Amino acid sequence: MASFRIRPYREEDYDAARSLFIRGILEHAPTEYRLFLRSAWTQLGLLVLFVGARAAAGCWVLGLGAVALALVAMWLQVRAFVTSYIQQALGTDLQDIGASYLRTPNSCFWVAESGGSVVGTVGATPAQDNEAAMELKRMSVSKEHRGQGIAKALVGEVLRFARARGYGAVVLTTSTVQVVAQRLYEGQGFRKVATYSPSLLATLLRFKLFRYRYDLPGGTA
């Protein structure tokens, strides 16, 4: 069984933590693209495009070419959507992890270390929309180290941290494409409390966010 340890973030972890986050989010782009392509509206649109292009050009090859171009355009749009989220995160709390998570008593950021390398991250900070709840953020585990219990251990660290500070609940947000994460959180006792789409583009891409909550008994914050 692979060994690892969970420890507080240090400044020398900066590049590794950000790189781990970027790789983890980019992994979801193909899944989001497939989800978009499975939409009945997307498939109908591609069919209409093929029929229209074939009728206009009188050649089925050109019809297929039009569909191929549309598929490429859709992939670029999905990729841009994912990249914009990454840039937003890198420009906010992940721009200065120490300042965002380590300079107040009710926030923290941890890394999972294995073989001298950072292979997982998670952060905790008071939820902006609920003063009695702590929010779990920036959970990521490297692809090569999944299935070793690292994610479960990182979640447990956040729960213990929140409980020790008297918080009544831990909340988090995950997405449609993060199916494995959803199973992890539900297996840990989190329950889904809200579903929403963050933007019109997200709605068109069939991308939704899920809000989860874990109630901590005896919390007083």
From TrEMBL:
The keyword Phosphoprotein does not apply. SUPFAM superfamilies: Acyl-CoA N-acyltransferases (Nat). Pfam families: Acetyltransf_1. InterPro entries: Acyl_CoA_acyltransferase (IPR016181), GNAT_dom (IPR000182), NAT_camello-type (IPR050769). Residues 69-217 form the N-acetyltransferase domain. The keyword Transmembrane applies. The chain crosses the membrane at residues 44-76. Coiled coil: none annotated. Keywords: Membrane, Transferase, Transmembrane, Transmembrane helix. It comes from the Eukaryota. GO terms for molecular function: N-acetyltransferase activity. PANTHER family: 8B (PUTATIVE,_PSEUDO-RELATED (PTHR13947:SF58), GNAT FAMILY N-ACETYLTRANSFERASE (PTHR13947). This is NAT8 acetyltransferase. It comes from Upupa epops. The lineage of its organism: Eukaryota, Metazoa, Chordata, Craniata, Vertebrata.
